[in-house]
Input
Amino acid sequence: MRKKVTVVGAGNVGANLAVNIAHKELADVVLVDVVEGVPQGKALDILQSGPIEDYDVTVTGANEYEPTANSDVVVITAGFPRKPGMSRDDLLLANYEVVKTATEQSVKYSPDAILVLVTNPLDAMCWTAFQASKFPKHRVVGMAGVLDTARFRTFIAQELQVSVENVTAVVLGGHGDTMVPLVRLSSVSGIPLTELLDQPTLDRLVQRTRDGGAEIVKYLKTGSAYYAPSAAAVEMVESILKDKKKVLPCAAYLEGEYGVHGLFVGVPVKLGAQGIEKIYEIKLSADESAALQKSAAAVQELVNVIKAKMG
Output
């Protein structure tokens, strides 16, 4: 039996996800979108690349959720993209409705699936899906840290003119302006970053990482990043489907870890066939801990807005 992945949202992120999953032959893909014809057309186009690119999976498009039945993983990318000058918070209530509906429909047909959230504001959307699905916490996970870490690694590699493959970086916290890149635990082939770059340079790279999404939005003007976000989500999906047990920074539901209760916040987790199989609690310095608490507080504010709306 081939694995099955549902991708909700056939926009740039969703379509690239479908392409990457097909390329890697990870699973059959169902692309779901509310816009008639779009998921069907994109799915057919991806399917027709198979003979050229040498992959052999089924890719179908749908406007309803019945074809998604018995998916192993459901990736939710649907929602409104961020526009220039728009904060992630502005997206909140619009995307809350989208994610809530997508989650309810997905879990109705795939009650044993693992949910991977990509829609922004990420941490609050994870909380929304967690509430709507009533799934155990290990089966709801958010894609943010893999992307933020990739951005940090890219900027470090550019700065030092070394291979990105040699750069290891750790980013914690909410996906947004308050994320916490941990310079102390980032290195190049085991050499601490602090021995390779001075403090002003490190501060600049940390800030650029925090602004990574906004920098791309500014260039594109009418949309947000999608190549790297979809690649990041595929890495997570692959670790789940192949039970690779990769340790990746993901948004996970915390119940006391790092002093955070009842929120999704980015932390290192082991991702395998069960979803989140372990949360790693790193010993943080006072400054790092304070930064993480500040990040969690920003997530809490968004969740409070949703709670107020739910009444």
